[in-house]
Amino acid sequence: MIQGDSADLMRRAAALHAASIVVDAHSDILMGLTDGTTTWESGAPASATEEGCDGQVSLKLLEAGGVTAQVFAIFTAPFDLNYRPLRPEYAGSTQARALAMFAVFHEALHTYADRFRLATTAADVRRAKAEGVTAGILAFEGLDPIGIDLRLLRLFRTLGITIATFTWSNRNPLADGSSVAKRAGGLSMLGEEALAELERLRILIDLAHLGPTSVDEVLEMATKPLLVSHTRPGDEHRERMLRKVGEGGGVACSIFYQVPTVAALVDQLEWLMELCGPHGVGLGADFYGTNPAPAEVQTVADFPRITEEILRRGHSDEIARGILGENFLRLYEEVVG
Fold first, then answer.
1. Is residue 238 within 8 Å of residue 231, measured between CB atoms?
2. β-sheet bridge partners, residue 73
3. Where are the domains of the chain?
4. If we measure between CA atoms, which residue out of 237, 184, 169, 179 comes closest to residue 214?
5. pTM (2 decimals)?
6. pLDDT tens-digit profile of 286-328?
7. Of 61, 92, 260, 328, whose CB is crowded by the most CB atoms within 10 A?
8. What is the pLDDT of residue 223?
9. Nearest alpha-carbon partner for 208 in 171, 252, 240
10. Is 3.90.550.10 the CATH number for 3-335?
11. C-alpha torsion sign, points 161, 166, 172, 173
12. Residues with Cβ within 8 Å of residue 216, at least 6 apart in sequence
């Protein structure tokens, strides 16, 4: 590509990105915000820590990257794969940890009321775009904080939860996670009840981190389209799962973890499009836990580089807008409202 053509593409990509609804379907930054290792106003580049990158997501960086909506995970994870205490300071207190994260999020809604809004519908996201503010969507990454009391799902829905995985990689009372055992089990009877309750409350079910048997059971029992908030190429079972998610009208989002370059990230997006279809693909960076990240996309402020690479591959504006956020928003509106 000659230099003039490259400049034209960059201008076209910048204009398209600025006009598009951009959604990142997964970030764990609420852990750092709750623990005080980062701030909502951080403008620093990503800095590696033992557990992730504190500098990857903030209001300032989201604004710089033109990100319309960020999904913030409530991730308590005090247990290892067999439910033994992994982080003793949180063992037995997943609910307290979750409530602290809710408090930090809702306090930010008050502190940054002119820049930050809670989104619980697709209309909220579109309104945020029109008003030039950032929307925050809340998701449970693991339903450990509800214990065995499904009544708490309604309470947490009232606090803003609209997306949920059954578990992280561990086993909990609802299901087996993706790494719990070589022959992981499926949903418990309580897990089956939870699936029905999530659908009744219009909470979007996320298959990320769920064990293979549980995935198959959810795909069989679910009556609404599904989300995979952060994923990558995998084995034959994962490919079958992603095809079924796409066929059912769901969306699978590309993780950035251990993806070396933006070109490799778009390779991964194209692989997902082959499995899920062009309208079944989105972005799920997994920032905060994403170390290393693509060289050119170290923080959410670098998201315009993704748009540029998508267009460089010859994809249409419509495909680019879908990947950036419209595909996710279609699914979110259908299931959540």
1. yes
2. 139
3. 3-335
4. 184
5. 0.94
6. 998 777 899 999 999 999 999 999 999 999 999 999 999 999 9
7. 328
8. 98
9. 252
10. no
11. positive
12. 186, 241
